[in-house]
Structures are given as structure tokens and as C-alpha cells.
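Page 47, continued from p. 46.
Same chain as before, 155 aa.
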Amino acid sequence: MGLVLLCGFSCGPTELPRLNLEFEIPVKTIPAKEIYFVGDTILVEILFSKELKDMTSEYIYVFEDFDFKGAMRFLELVDKTLDQPSQPGAFSSVKLFNEIGGLEIVSDSEAELNYHFNVEQYILRTNLVLHKPGIILCLFLQEVVLMETQALKNL
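Result:
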């Protein structure tokens, strides 16, 4: 499983126009399987280097101790007639145990991704323990808008 990180750079009227970058960030779920049962523990691990290659240009950018502001959406699919945003949140169906970095629940449908930076890489490790049955959709979202280019260096 992967997560695509989209970055946009916005400059003032006398500066360069907006620059859009795309990075791929790996997301592991352990064990990886299609069906989980009540009581199962799912480890979610996101581990990536501070050096990220833009998927559209092949340039490598360095992010030093950057706050990526990612999110995880957790929805229970209960009604086939409703689109994803209209489905109810499902964080009440799991218990979280953060190991490194982790998730901070902000609503029943969304949690912030808080990465730990350790000089060379970003890490997030958290365990989800299922305690209610249901059909759950888990989405990882990452969009970064940088207003200052100091946080980003092109190698």
C-alpha cells in the first residue's frame, strides 16, 4: 500500500508561479490481509526518508524535521447509496496504541498522522485493535502546501 504526498508551493505576485510535486510514501499494514476479525491487531507503519523523489520530475527534495500534516480517514461502509464522505466514521470501532509518532483522533472519522523524525527518516507506528464488526474503509491522506521554500532543498 502506498500514500501519495502532494505538495504545492505558492509564491507572491512577483515570484515564481505555483509548483506542484508528488511523492510516494509507503504505508504497511501488518498483517496484510483482506479480512480482519474482532480482536485482531493491525500494525500500521509508515517509514520514509527525509529525501523524497518527485514522481513527476525525478528531482530529489530534502525535508528536515517537517510537519507533514497527514490524515487517516476511517469510515464504516453501511449504506451503498451514500458516497464515501457521507459514510459514518469508524474510529469508535478500534482502540489505538501508538508506538512511535502515531495517530491523534480528531473525530470519529479522522485522525492526524504525527510522524517522528529521527535525523534521516520519518516514522509512524501504531496498532489498531478491532473491537466492533463492520466493513471499514481506511484512507491515508497527505497534502502539503508550503509557503516558504526554506523547509525544502533540491539535491
